[in-house]
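Section 5: illustrative case.
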């Protein structure tokens, strides 16, 4: 029997509220498209706290940065509500990009915007942490 590998294998997965779908700093293996429900994207910061990045819903996708850059996951994604996603492995994701004339540019643009937004939020988070630390322990002027 001949199997046509021209189309990526897509699996449908369901996650319960609070369930981790991808974890920051782990190997990137899949790309996800949200069918129903919502997910929270968060990042663990070096100051020991969790930074909320965004909430995504139906039609949004995640997992592209690690696959495109072949780097560990840059954030944790957790189901906020019950969520159903379509999941592609890396080979399927890359194959999908080659089959679609508009997907590569669109995915690259979203990845770039997400990186910029995450960097801005992380900087704000650190600056707020530093300011709070200074207010909590004022220095003497004498």
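Designed sequence:
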């Amino acid at each position: 029997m001949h199997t046509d590998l021209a189309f990526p294998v897509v699996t449908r997965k369901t996650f319960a509220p609070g369930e981790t779908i991808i974890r920051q700093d782990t190997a990137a293996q899949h790309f996800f498209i949200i069918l129903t429900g919502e997910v929270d994207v968060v990042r663990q910061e070096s100051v020991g706290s969790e930074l909320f990045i965004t909430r995504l819903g139906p039609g949004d996708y995640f997992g592209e940065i690690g696959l495109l850059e072949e780097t560990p996951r840059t954030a944790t994604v957790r189901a906020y509500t019950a969520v159903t996603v379509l999941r592609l492995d890396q080979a399927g994701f890359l194959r999908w990009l080659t089959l679609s004339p508009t997907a590569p540019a669109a995915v690259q643009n979203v990845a770039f915007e997400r990186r910029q937004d995450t960097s801005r939020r992380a900087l704000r988070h650190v600056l707020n942490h530093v300011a709070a630390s200074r207010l909590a322990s004022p220095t003497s002027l004498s």
